[in-house]
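Lest this sound abstract, we think one record worth quoting, the chain in one-letter code, the fold tokenised, each line plainly labelled:

>
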Amino acid sequence: MDAGVQRAVTGLEESRTKLREEAVVPLRVRREAVPAADEHLLLGAIAHLMESLQELTDVTGDRRTTPDAGLALTTAAGRLAGAAELLRAAEQRARKNA
């Protein structure tokens, strides 16, 4: 595998593992709701993640080899942008309601 691609794949795999261990699992085992005063912080952090994933798909789309990959990456980038917008709007509402 190309060294640059290998580095990217490894970084993504490590990021996924860390995300699951440090965010998904603790939230999954949590029994109580997220405090209203903190909800906007969590929504903002998830929105940042969606924005980073959108950036990743955009960059990858610029360097793709096949048309199928290009279509998938373009579509994914658009959907991630939409998800980030929804989360940002929810973040703003939660901040006002905190």
Notes: The radius of gyration is 16 Å. The first helix runs from residue 3 to 29. The mean pLDDT is 95.
